[in-house]
Amino acid sequence: MIRLVDKPKILVVNDDANSLFALTNLLEQWATQENYDVVAARSGEEALREVLTHDFAVILLDVNMPGMDGFETAEAIHQRPRSSDIPIIFITAFVADELDRLKAYQKGAVDFLFTPVIPQVLYAKISVFVSLATKNEELRRQARQLSQRTTDLIASNQRLLREIEERKTAERASHAKDEFLAMLGHELRNPLSAISSAASLIGLPGVNADSVSHAKKIIQRQSRHLGRIVDDLLDLSRAMSGKILLNRLPLDMSALLKTTLETFRATGRLEDYHVAAEIAPCWVNGDATRLEQVISNLLDNALKYTPPGGRIELLSDVDDGEVTISVHDSGVGISADLLPQVFDVFVQGASTLDRAQGGLGIGLSLVRRLVELHGGNVYAESDGPGEGSTFTLHLPCIEHVNEPKAIPMDTSEQPKPAVLLVEDNDDGREMMAMMLGCYGYPVQHAADGFQGLAKAAADRPDIALVDIGLPGIDGYEVARRMRANPETHHIKLIALTGYGLADDQRRVMDAGFDMHLVKPVDVDQLLRAIDQCLARSPATVRS
Question: Which of 92, 326, 376, 465 is packed most tightly, with the most Cβ within 10 A?
């Protein structure tokens, strides 16, 4: 919509009513033709009030007025910033001498008119100022439009720059995810290929016992590797959704650091490296499993990007109620553009096909999330490519806590409790039953929830291992019905599930289970859970 330019206004100031009437009527004859309005004032004071309200193209000002004369009125008008540029034409009944003209011009006059006013002269003079005012107003309008257009262009440019940056960010994230999925496929295929080859070797005719034993070890090792990959993926999902559950207890952090380092040494992963450790005694309030995961991921990262023969240092120090733990390596280093992003999800340093350590590239993002959940922070430092890197984390310390004395276990030979296994996966059910049988447990098994209830009522086992995701009725309903039946309510119940969040554990316990195990469950963990479940009151076991 086009904004209409306001009509210019002419102010006529004269204390004589007849002169004022004659002059305003004369001006109004040309008002329509020249497109202006006429405003009248009877005194200098009234003229000042009009100037405060309106803008004028020109003022026709009588010199001889009682009270405030024309010169004083002109001076007052031009003292105000808003009206300082209004042209003033003085009207006088006598011929002004040079001193009067000088005084008038000093007060802001642009011209003189003498009465009686000649209409043609008046028309010529006011036409110039009206035209000038119209053009000035048009220029101001154009300037406002230009300013608004400039503002709009700046805003559009800023939006465009934001969209470009968002698009680049999305493209980087998409590329990082593509690389992550490719790496995930690579990491899954390697252990699956090894497991498949080892299983095929075991079934070959004429294979010797040593080869079978070696193949079994490969299957066990690669199965654990697959389990770690699944755990990493689950941890990533929990970290991104904020659903990581911590079991925080007083923890000897120095002992945890030493144990983690010894685990790496025991597996031979540090054989080709110069390793140094300086560990200060410190206690924290933390989840031992998760903090061990943090240190393991930092050591994994150092090994992944440090060539054999390099140096790795694990250092800890305590100062002002805070423990500082750093892992330094002499490896490939981190470029300046990557350094701020190393803890972001799906961000990974330069990878090669021959990396000995492998991995999904999500370890550092898990490190940051776990450290933050413990009330700490973590950051990375590097002087650039080829200069190595240092990862440092800070955690709040607590006062030293005396460790509770261990309760001795009864190791005497006792009859193994009867076990009912309710699992719909045929291979999983068969393998778990065989493993328990090898350890002397009498095992009955069922393929769905209804069969499980029937077996429990008929055989009265000591303990039941129940999968949650069963056909027909799920494991929750199996537990509820067993607890409601007087014949089976005494049976200990352990839930086997692939879901390990806090809400999943709550649902398991609410349904009547005594323990909760997250798949995959190794045989040692399962045997410990069975013993604990039968030996004490209901508890929750996390894995």
Answer: 465
